[in-house]
Design brief:
mainly alpha; Hypothetical protein af1432; about 0% strand
């Protein structure tokens, strides 16, 4: 059987069923470096697989979403947030007859460059680095430069563009990228509410009543309301947008979360601890370049040292960052010898 037939069928289905505004897989603007195409998978499907099997993706499971080292198995991590975004983005894409494979690939890669300790870590590195630090820019750097031992994943233009432009301020080149940007906000506001309630920082009754009346009483209802609103306001249009009423309610909930959860005395105390750790390690590696792991030491021959230090620190999981800090700055007892043990 001709393996290429599988991909040709996919192309035919996309031409037949996707919206005129969708990004068809066969119309990709290509990769940074030319390479032989896969016989069976489209380029967007291939990008999704490359992201899933990347080291940066695996590390997301041990990176903070909002709560540092939470007690309990059901708090979100950067990995579970990414899965939430992927699911919501695919639902939006499916309802609007957009390219689900492209939306999924962008969603799975959108936070690959995120720091340990959530946005607190991002703010710290942004304040330390002369060139600044933004997690969306770093995510693109991860897929372009850092993965595959410095070779990068060589993703398509459309996936790279969606990763770079997933923040609210971004301007994605595709509707699939716009779907991921909205899905990101929908996901984090709703699951952060659930986590805050689980952590006894909020009660369901604390949520602004006007926003709840618009969006719904539960996370499931709110997500369904917003996806439905996007469908009703975007179907048949060259746009992915939410209705004004629902969009305003989402922004009000987001502002409420900043006031009650994201920026509070407790969260600021934790952020100060993260700041001290990351600042100390940044300064240490700036003064002791040779202490960087071999891969990052090699990168410092191609890129400014401050950028490479940010590459290393942002790649860390929360636990690994604590372990590296401990190894550098916390005194350790000499290992007991066998003679010591026998004399105890």
């Amino acid at each position: 059987m001709d393996k290429g037939e599988v991909k040709r069928r996919t192309y035919a289905k996309e031409r037949a069923y996707l919206s005129e505004y969708a990004c068809l897989s066969e119309n990709t603007r290509g990769r940074l470096r030319p390479e032989t195409a896969c016989d069976m998978r489209t380029d967007f499907q291939r990008d999704r697989d490359r992201i899933i099997y990347s080291k940066a993706f695996l590390r997301l499971k041990n990176k903070t979403q909002v709560f540092f080292s939470p007690e309990g198995d059901h708090f979100r991590t950067r990995m579970t947030h990414t899965i939430d975004v992927s699911q919501i983005a695919r639902s939006i894409a499916r309802s609007l007859a957009l390219n689900e494979d492209l939306a999924e690939a962008i969603a799975l890669g959108h936070d690959l460059g995120h720091t340990p300790f959530g946005h607190a870590g991002e703010r710290v590195l942004n304040s330390l680095s002369p060139g600044g630090f933004e997690h969306n820019v770093q995510s693109l750097r991860v897929v372009d430069v850092l993965e595959k031992e410095g070779k990068g994943l060589n993703l398509t233009f459309e996936v790279r563009d969606g990763i770079l432009n997933h923040k609210k301020s971004g301007k994605p080149a595709t509707l699939e990228g716009k779907a991921v940007s909205l899905a990101d906000r929908i996901a984090y506001v709703n699951h952060d509410i659930e986590d805050a309630i689980r952590a006894d920082l909020l009660k369901e009754s604390d949520l602004p009543r006007a926003d709840v009346r618009v969006l719904g009483n539960s996370s499931r209802d709110r997500i369904n309301t917003m996806i439905t609103s996007i469908y009703e306001n975007s179907i048949g249009k060259n746009a992915v947008t939410m209705g004004e009423k629902e969009a305003a309610a989402l922004e009000h909930l987001r502002a409420f979360m900043f006031e009650r959860v994201y920026i509070t005395p407790v969260s600021m105390q934790e952020e100060e601890r993260a700041k001290r750790m990351l600042s100390a390690m940044y300064d240490y590696f700036r003064k002791n370049k040779d202490k960087l792991p071999a891969f990052y030491l090699g990168l410092s021959e191609r890129f400014p040292l401050e950028q490479v230090i940010c590459d290393y620190l942002s790649s860390m999981t929360d636990k690994f960052a604590v372990a590296v800090f401990d190894n550098i700055f916390v005194p350790h007892s000499w290992a007991l010898t066998q003679k010591d043990i026998e004399e105890l």
